[in-house]
Amino acid sequence: MQSLNSFILNLNQQKNIAKKRLKAIRNGELSAMAKVQKFHTHSIQINANNIKLADVQYALARELGLPSWSKLKQHIEELDHHRQAISDHVAPLDSDATTLHVRCGHDIQSKLRECRFEGEFLPLIDPLCIGPLPASQKDFVVRRAQYVHQTLLPIIGRAEEEIDCIIESETANLAKLLSEQYERIVFWVEHDCYDQLMLVYALTQLESAQKTTVEIIEVNQFPGTDRFIGFGQLPAEAIRSCWQKRKVVTPKLMIQATKCWQALISSQPSSLVDLLQSDSLDCLPNMSKALKRHLQELPNHSTGLSLTQTLAMQVLSNENVPITASSWFIKYQKKEPLPFLGDVMFYALLLPLAQGDTPLIKLTNQQSPWWEHLVSITEYGQACLISDIVYIQDYWVGGIHCKKTAQWQWDHQETNTLSVKSLIVTDS
User: Fold this and answer.
1) What is the layout of strands, in order, in the sheet containing 120-123?
2) Does residue 3 lie in a domain region?
3) Which residue pairs, CB below 8 angstroms and at least 24 apart, start in 101-105?
4) Nearest-angstrom CA–CA distance, 205 and 143
5) 17 lies in which domain range?
6) Which of 51, 101, 144, 334 has the fewest CB atoms below 10 angstroms from its CB?
7) 138 and 232 part of one domain
8) Structure pTM?
9) Rounded to an integer, what distance in angstroms lies between the CA atom of residue 19 and that of residue 60?
């Protein structure tokens, strides 16, 4: 029976899938052969006449995100071990030191308890991947609270919440992070902008920590039948298995994190481009892709749209009728090369496109909860999407302020080369 969680794999089930696929190939089913050839490293050498069960198993393992069939078996046995450990109520894995588990949300909080971790949990939920990143630490918490209050809370019906409450909460979180009561701090992060920016910001706050061991559990993929986006998708035994992957934050890693943060709060994108071109982020293996994706939120030089806006508009352009905001987000996620937005964050970034004299999108059914709002693209939006017009807007990308009068623009077609020449200033 197929598990409801796509990251729970059963060896007998995978054996049956491989046998059925081999039988289908020998019966002439081209689609079955195509699946094997897509993931087999020697696809040119195999065909319906010479293919063996081992070939199908090898390709299936690679399809699931593992390098070989033996590694697939090893992975399944490992998860079985952790599942049994949870069932047997073995000693907590973090019991050797007073531990603070840090995460950019609450998604794994209950699963850590299910896994029998005993350390405290700290959610750092400020989405630093959107909105302004002030260079002054003195102003940072206040400016971020203002952004969250003005942009995100109205969508979820909390517009009446006082800014002072947000400031107090975030200040308390930072105080807990810097508390000397913890012998070990463990960051649970993925490869996206939300996590990576939270990580480098928090590490810069911990620069003076002397007695605390700081560790990172960083995962950018996990074997399964679905695309891995985050820890929240994983079952408890998979979360528990990640504990052995943690790495200690070294002085070299801390220096690289500080460089990243300084580039992120810079008012000019050249700081990020120079950092990426310097190839000096070996201690932060997922940071380069996250920073490139961050740069793609600058306006496209031919449309004026960020990459998020472009992908979201493309979804609407492909629809014949208005769709709900929740459906819009789901369809956008499938196009996003490095998913980093929650649904509320996504909607907050796109709402400005429905405003002004010439909106790019149209909203209806707004008397309903925000996820039931109906969204469609306007003629002006269609024209913008095909570069017939350039949409001029005012927003922040980290420390970079894209103004209506002067803004940095990015040639999204040149992101692989990261040429400084692809960044231009326009006055309009």
Assistant:
1) 120-123, 99-103, 184-189, 213-218, 247-248
2) no
3) 101/186, 101/188, 102/177, 102/185, 102/186, 102/187, 102/188, 102/202, 103/187, 103/188, 103/189, 103/231, 104/189, 104/194, 104/195, 104/198, 105/232, 105/342
4) 17
5) 11-85
6) 334
7) yes
8) 0.92
9) 11
* Strands across the sheet containing 400-402: 131-132, 395-398, 400-402
Query: What are 289-325's pLDDT values in tens digits?
Result: 999 999 999 999 899 999 999 999 999 999 999 999 9
Which secondary-structure segment (H or E) carries 274?
A: helix 270-277
Tokens of 236: 């408890």
**Same domain for 183 and 332?**
no
**Co-location of 116 and 252 in the same domain:** yes
- Separation between Cα atoms, residue 335 and residue 39, nearest integer Å: 21
End-to-end CA separation in angstroms for the chain: 60
- Residues 264, 297: contact at Cβ < 8 Å? no
Kindly state whether residue 348 falls inside one of the protein's structural domains.
Answer: yes
CA gap 272, 295 in Å, rounded: 8
pLDDT for the residue 416: 46
CATH number at residue 251: 3.40.1360.10
Residue 273 in domain: no
Amino acid present at 387: S
